[in-house]
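Researcher: We're teaching a course module on how sequence relates to structure. For the next exercise, students receive a sequence and then see the predicted structure as tokens, so they can try to spot secondary structure elements on their own. Here is the exercise chain.
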Amino acid sequence: MRGGSEMRVPMIAGNWKMNTTVEEAVTLAGQIRQGISGTHGVEVMVCPPFVSLAAVRTALEGTSIKEGAQNSYFEEKGAYTGEVSPIMLKGLCEYVIIGHSERRQYFGETGEVVNRKLAAVMKAGLKPILCIGEKLEDNEAGRTAEVISEQLRAALDKLDFSGELVVAYEPVWAIGTGRAAHGRPVNDTARLIRSVLAELRGRETADQVRVLYGGSVTADNVAEFVEQSEIDGALVGGASLKVDQFASIVRQTEDIFFPNNPPTKDLVPW
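Model: And here is the predicted structure for the students to work with:
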């Protein structure tokens, strides 16, 4: 059973990346609000650009849809022009994406930087979504397990994390490349992730941590991943900007996790 004696609540998170003006973000949030109306049991989150966090929060008021930031710096304040700190995000969002493959690739974020960001986010009382994933050359060389383990250990080094941590496995080679990942091997990697978490913080905590899949997720392929026993949802990129696609992903996830009796109200993660 997912999460041991208590099922982990599925999560679908939409990462809007560097898209949408404030006005467009508000419109999209309103459309998603309508598109997933009536769904329960799936924790739904959207991650708009920093400039739209406050406006989107207002647009989603009164719903169970959560909001997340796409990044955060590791210092609380100081002479760091252009950066946004965790304490600035408090009150605007509940989650923060840390270590996304694009941050690692384009902005040179190392395991040490990711570790410091995670520490700062958790200190501020925000919930991190830690992204990890291997490159094509690592995958083809059979080094997936080695790379994933190294990234996890570096990111979580000396951190007292809890079951509120979310880990998103995003194989870099499957993002916008035309190469497709498949459910069973992704599930094996999710099981590996949970085993490393168990070594670091114990089996009980590892069983509470939700593991998402992120890698060109669409309404056409999401079921292949969320039906796997170790995968608790998805971190959705481009498809989260398309209301019909995103709503379908949420509804398919609900159907897979609750095939007979969907909950009558939204659940808490644990």
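Model: If you want an answer key for the exercise: The CA atoms of residues 213 and 269 lie 17 Å apart. The longest helix spans residues 183-201.
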